[in-house]
Design a protein that fits this description.
single chain; about 260 residues; mainly beta; Jelly Rolls; 2 domains; nine-stranded antiparallel sheet; four-stranded antiparallel sheet; binds 2-oxoglutaric acid
Length: about 260
């Protein structure tokens, strides 16, 4: 495969490996970096109303099958449990936080996102959906608190599955429980196999997103980077991860983690 020397390395923060201007920290010349991402893959913007949007970049990760297999095998996957009515309930997928320098693909994706969106993302939150029975319900990433202007970038590896957007209902509207993806107003994308999806603007304020159950035995991995401008009024309501507790018992943490 051709080796591409990467000009996106020339960001304010330096090269793909964190060094500056053609020299490593100990002054030895830098070897060309083989790119794990397609920097020029076309990006399609889908408006979500006036203030929100999602960008879809198909084929963003090169060798997506290999990246998937490595991560699936080696990431320290753990089971998160969320406090619900005095019991810890396992989330229906595994997860882990990873360092953004854990893999060249992570580092390159992060530098690409920084350069394109001019924002300092925090990453990388990884989720593993073992089969189609694992899912993520409709929600918005309210744990970011400042939701008026945010970016949530998600690289999806492995099985393509519906990724659903639904407009958030105004407070006090009675909402029937319509399965994600089956409401006529839902927007459904099918990212997978190395695609990148970036939600932006007021998407976390105005829209919900989720990955419903799917009819597949194949696994799917998502990798998420987030950024908030911290503009606007912070959302001070408890978030999903603050847990729910209604007894007089001493307050317990909102989540806990099991590592096998
Ligand atoms: O797995 C995905 O693609 C979505 C993950 C997600 O919505 C989240 O972590 O908040």
């Amino acid at each position: 495969m051709a080796v591409e020397i990467c000009p996106i390395a020339r960001l304010r923060c330096g090269h793909l490996d964190g060094t500056l201007d053609g020299m490593s920290a100990d002054s030895t010349p830098i070897m060309p970096v083989e790119l794990s991402i397609e920097r020029h893959a076309p990006s399609r913007r889908i408006p979500l109303g006036e203030r929100s949007w999602v960008d879809l970049v198909e084929g963003f990760v090169r060798n997506a099958d290999m990246e998937f297999a490595d991560l699936h095998e080696s990431a320290p996957w753990a089971q998160t449990e969320v406090l619900r009515y005095d019991k810890y309930v396992p989330e229906k997928r595994l997860g882990t936080m990873m360092r953004s320098d854990a893999r060249p693909m992570f580092r390159q994706a992060e530098l690409h996102l920084q350069a394109k969106y001019r924002a300092a993302f925090t990453g990388v939150g990884a989720l593993l959906y073992r089969t189609g029975d694992d899912f993520q319900g409709l929600h918005s990433d309210r744990e970011m608190r400042w939701l008026d202007d945010t970016l949530v970038a998600i690289v999806v590896l492995g099985q393509r599955r519906p990724f659903v957007f639904r407009k958030r209902a105004p407070i006090a509207t009675v909402v029937e429980r319509i399965p994600a993806g089956s409401d006529s107003g839902d927007l459904v994308l099918m990212p997978g196999e190395g695609d990148l999806l970036v939600m932006g603007g007021a998407a976390q304020l105005e829209w919900l997103h989720g990955v419903p159950k799917a009819d597949t035995a194949n696994p799917r991995i998502s990798l998420t980077w987030r950024w908030t401008s911290r503009r606007g009024r912070p959302d001070t309501n408890p978030s999903y991860y603050d847990g729910k507790q209604y007894s007089d018992r001493p307050r317990q943490p909102g989540t806990r983690i099991h590592r096998p």
